Here is the input.
Amino acid sequence: MIRRNRNMKFLGGYYAFPGGKVDPGDGVPAAVARCRGIAASEAEALLTGHEGVPALAFWITAVRELLEESGILLACDETGRALDPSTPRVKDGIERCRKALMSGEAPFTDLIAREGWFCDLRSLRYLSHFITPTSSPIRFTARFFLCPMPAGQEPRLFTEETSEGFWIFPGEGYRRYLSGEMKMAEPGEYGLGYLAQFSSLEELMAAHRDGLHKFQGIADRMEVAWSSFDWKQNRFPSKSL
Here is the structure.
């Protein structure tokens, strides 16, 4: 999780998952063509209720924002082979991409194209969809995704927008939210509560093989993919993801 800088206009000081807004460049044909692991038609079937950009743009945004805020890059070569960060060329290439991205040198997919890479979307799974209530002073719609950490990479803290970055058991994170130690908006709160239902990463990813989102919050109303889901079940495991 990350903590947003306290001086940010919206949700300053709040704890959240890495992420950000969809950029126009995330949805252009050249960006969509730079993806591997999920077809544009498949993304359209999984992600409904969006306008203005192709559905696959949300997956591309997830990859780009993860690089911006955590230094993690979900990418592969033209044959689909995952990156090997143990090699200097790949390690340095990831760093070049992030620095150029943060300086606004070129669109994200242009930067990875320079390295001969493609967005690797095979491991990303659609988790949830939130829309702020009409009473919110700032309105947004947000999509959340899951993925396991790619081999050989570790997240890093960058302070352009965040003041903290750390791993935490989902149940422990939710306990800290309830105790007032960690302020979170609803998407982060429900996300941690959902993740804490699972005893392992393998169990979690198995539940998302269908690629469909599992819950959504729209205008203060929560809806889940199955009627028997219990948000309070197993929320505080001592060992989890």
Notes: The chain has one domain: 2-224. The CA atoms of residues 97 and 111 lie 6 Å apart. The longest strand covers residues 125-131. Strands lie at 2-4, 15-16, 35-36, 75-76, 118-120, 125-131, 141-146, 162-165, 215-218, 221-224.
